[in-house]
Amino acid sequence: MSTSSGKCQSTGIPGLRGTEHVGFTVPDLAQATDFFVNVIGCQYMFELGPFQAADDWMEKHLNVDSRTVMRRLRFFRCKHGPNFEIFEYQTPDQSLIQPKNSDVGGHHLAFYVDDFDAAVAYLSEKGVRLLGKPTVRTVGPLLL
Question: Prior bond to 134 cis, omega within 30?
Fold first, then answer.
């Protein structure tokens, strides 16, 4: 959006430069570490935990039951994109059912690669379950 001075006026977070990290919870941090390091090729950065608050910090800051134990979290760097913060929690009200993509909280990851066919073949060789035949778009900003 332009102003009367001709300069572009931005909306949103002042000074936003990009995404630093994306966090999500997994049922088994060791298995997730193996996948992100040995299959995807991310670099393991560091681990924190365990952490349990004696007050309502977890509820106020993370919107989880105040009795929650964050067993461990690990950070992974994956080339030039955002980092991944992967949590393993123990909590009395935890659901162990993975959400579908259409459920609230559902998610997926997408990566840029130089050779799509080689990447798909590699993931298949590593035993990664692919959902249907990969779709390649030839128009638009994303090539899936």
Answer: no
Question: Does the reported pTM lie above 0.90?
Answer: no
Mean pLDDT over the full length of the chain: 88
* Beta bridge partner(s), residue 46: 75
What residue type is assigned to position 81 of the chain? Answer: G
Contact, 85 vs 77, CB < 8 A?
no
pLDDT at residue number 109: 86
User: How far is Cα 117 from Cα 110, in angstroms, rounded to an integer?
Assistant: 15
Contact yes or no for 50/70 (Cβ under 8 A): yes
Contact criterion met (CB below 8 Å) for 97 and 35: no
